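Backbone geometry:

***
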Amino acid sequence: MNEENKKLKEDLIAYSKQIGIDKIGFASAGVFTGLKERLKTQQELGYQSGFEEPDIEKRTTPNLLFPTAKSIIAIALAYPSKMEDAPRSTREDRRGIFCRASWGIDYHDILREKLRLLESYLKERRPDAMMKSMVDTGELSDRAVAERAGIGWSGKNCAIITPEFGSYVYLGEMITTIPFDPDTPLEDNCGTCNKCVEVCPTGALVQGGQLDSNKCIAFLTQTKGFLAEEYRTKLGNRLYGCDTCQTVCPENKGKDFHLHPEMEPDPEVVKPKLKPLLTISNREFRENFGKISGSWRGKKPIQRNAIIALAHYKDTSAIPDLLSLIKNDPRPVIRGTAAWAIGKIGDIETLEALQNHKTTEQDPEVLKELEKGITMLTEQG
């Protein structure tokens, strides 16, 4: 690398620290050959979630996205792992939880702003340079770029693990025509540890570094249809996402950084009361949850998950709310999940109500769930 580019890289690193970027790394824009093979395997096994860019070539070949690309800049921002003054879940007011990656303002917006500032800085120094930034929803794999750029290693939990911040980091990247000298990837430090694989609630971590996305609770909480019954009992009180494979990781022990005020959680938003969620309006949902990344799929998955969480708690105080949903909610997924939840809670006094609803319900899926609820109550009675 010539002296001019070397100086620009040093200055860009210094500038990144000024604007609150916690880690920055540089990688070549060559094809991600190893990733391409892994993605083909994932696709053949049916392990992809469907949220990803479907074109493997685009995901692994930066020059398809940017023909004159010479290098990629990767950034990482650390987010908090602990919440101050977290409200307690009580018998009268059970609460759900959003995963840590959904605390604070939507991280996509935070990282895009940092990347925009980097772009502006580079444009001032190199007006002829071209660049393309992306966060999470872009074609490239954030993890593969971060790994190549030396941000961290790709852990068995399929997260990038940094020596400084553990895996509690958001990732973003920028493809550029500037030929920066690449950084050295970090050595994998997972070793023989297999905790994340062993404790994954649904067995979604097939083996270290291989995830069946369709079984992953983080993915399942974002789906909009009926949740398969085998996963409902695994959900616990999770409303969005899952942190289990991160919280058990030894590399995350004692890692809790509060470096960005915009990432601090509002306890009442990220650990909300469950029963009010059942009848929240679209407007209230946008006002209360619209700024966090966990709201991107709308209120329906969150409400369905809240119903399942109430069943997890066997919250008898929620029975009137659940019966009201079965009677009045226009959405089959909500009606059916509420019927199942009542059966799970096990209040025998509701048996007649479920039987009555069965005579008026038209939707075949809801009828199946009503039958499940009735069966559970009958067996318990």
